[in-house]
Amino acid sequence: MLKQYHSIPSPNIEDENKAKPFSLIMTDRVRRNLVFDRWRNFMFGRKELGPGMVLFKNYLTHMGQVDIVNICQKWAMGPGGFYRPSNRSGAKLRLHMMCFGRLWDPVTKYEKSYRSDGSAPPPLPYEFISLAENAIEDAQLHMKLLPSMLPDICVANFYSYGDRLGLHQDCDEHVGGLDRGLPVVSVSIGESAEFLYGHTRDENKLEKVLLESGDVLIFGGKSRRIFHGVRRILPPLDYIGLSQVVKETGLISGRLNLTLKQFQF
Ligand SMILES: O=C(O)CCC(=O)C(=O)O
Ligand SMILES: [Fe+2]
């Protein structure tokens, strides 16, 4: 039989309030959500390190990390692959580097499309793009003012033990994007790094955070121009201490970092 919905009187607010049940005890659904939130924070802890700066612990799944190592390895040894860049004074940096999507170099910045050996960077893998987009969307859930960013470059660094990266700002991208605070997305795989950051060049005033395998760090908004650097790579305690990703991919000892950014604006 058809119900005569049109004849149901619209509830008035007062009646609705009176009808609301009041319970002293948590419903199962609320309890489940609370437990899930705690578990999620424990597993995928979110640490706000500053305005527009957030660290997602354990953000990448094991398979996600393995995929990234394999994608990088596919290009690592070919043209446009890893090399040790020099700085303006001609000294070699204490890391290996390669670019995806477009070329960046500590001396020529974004000016050139080809390296001195004539090689061009491989295309930016869509897996890297969607990783950056997802991480930014997750950050925006808590940081409403964080702008979106569509990466067009990824700088991949590989640090062996003893390697490091001096204090610097990532500020060679288009000034419009820098001023808008378009975020940088930084992905860590392999051994852990001591990462220094802050709004000053004074090393004594910098903050320190440990970046571990699977962590994703975002810095945008008011933190887009922070000074940052990698002070050291921590050695694993023993072979047992090597991460599963290192064991599975055969990644040499050290740390792989992806820095995803938007140059064009
Ligand atoms: O390895 C890192 O965590 C930082 C890399 C970085 O800052 C860069 O490549 O500009
Ligand atoms: Fe940087």
Written account of the structure:
This protein has 265 residues and is of the alpha+beta class. It has a single domain (47-261), classed as Jelly Rolls. The chain contains 6 helices and 11 strands. It has helices at 13-19, 28-43, 62-76, 126-140, 175-180, 244-249; strands at residues 46-50, 53-56, 96-100, 153-159, 165-168, 184-190, 193-198, 207-211, 216-219, 227-233, 255-261. A hairpin with an 8-residue loop joins strand 7 (193-198) and strand 8 (207-211). The radius of gyration is 23 Å and the shape is globular. Residues 155, 157, 165, 170, 186, 193, 195, 211, 228, 230, 257, 259 line the site of 2-oxoglutaric acid (AKG). Residues 168, 170, 228, 259 line the site of fe (ii) ion. Its EC number is 1.14.11.33.
Q: What's this, in brief?
A:
The protein is of the alpha+beta class and 265 residues long. It is built from six helices and eleven strands. Mean pLDDT is 89; it is low at 1-9.
CATH homologous superfamily annotation: Alpha-ketoglutarate-dependent dioxygenase AlkB-like
Instruction: Name the bound molecules.
Output: 2-oxoglutaric acid, fe (ii) ion
- Principal-axis shape equals globular
Number of helices: 6
Q: Percent range for helical residues? A: 10-25%
Enzyme class: oxidoreductase
EC number: 1.14.11.33
Organism: Helianthus annuus
GO molecular function: broad specificity oxidative DNA demethylase activity; ferrous iron binding; oxidative RNA demethylase activity
